[in-house]
Amino acid sequence: MNPIVHTIVIGICSYLTLIVILRLSGKRTLSKWNAFDFVVTIALGSTLSTALTSSQVPFTQSVTAFVIIILLQFIITFTSVRSKRVKNLVKSRPSLLLFNGRYCEDTLQRERVVRAEICAAIREKGITDVESVYAVVLETDGSFSVLPQAGSSNSALEGIAGIPGPT
């Protein structure tokens, strides 16, 4: 088969097959990225790329690779919801970057975040005074959550590395 025709046919079939597999695998496969999701996405992209550019890899082998990657992702996420040990291996914990208007310098350094990034996240929320911010959290997907004020229980901060215990 002509390489161009092969790329067109396999490209269309692989793309449609990947969409069906992703839809069947559920929303978790397409969620915001953490390191684990990034690896799965790169693996899927690499597999699709190989399917498109290599006439030596049969379509069925590419589909099998898609299914294996998605199946492994499902098994890991299924297990991580049920096992704290697996969850700790696969996912990182959110980190406290700013608390009660004060920067958490050790965490900033460990997470390689600069103050300017925190200020940008705070400005995005329409806040102009860093000292008035209760907390800024670096989430597991790399995004920043800005909490302008303390709540009565602060339950949304449960499990975040660096949160001081009750006083």
From TrEMBL:
Signal peptide: none
InterPro entries: DUF421, UPF0702_alpha/beta_dom_sf, YetF_N
Start and end residues of each YetF-like N-terminal transmembrane domain: 13-78
Transmembrane regions: 6-24, 36-57, 63-81
Transmembrane helix is among the record's keywords: yes
Protein localization: Cell membrane
Protein topology in the membrane: Multi-pass membrane protein
Ranges for domain YetF C-terminal: 82-151
The keyword Transmembrane is annotated on this UniProt entry: yes
Family listed: Belongs to the UPF0702 family.
Name of the protein described by the UniProt record: DUF421 domain-containing protein
Native species: Larsenimonas rhizosphaerae
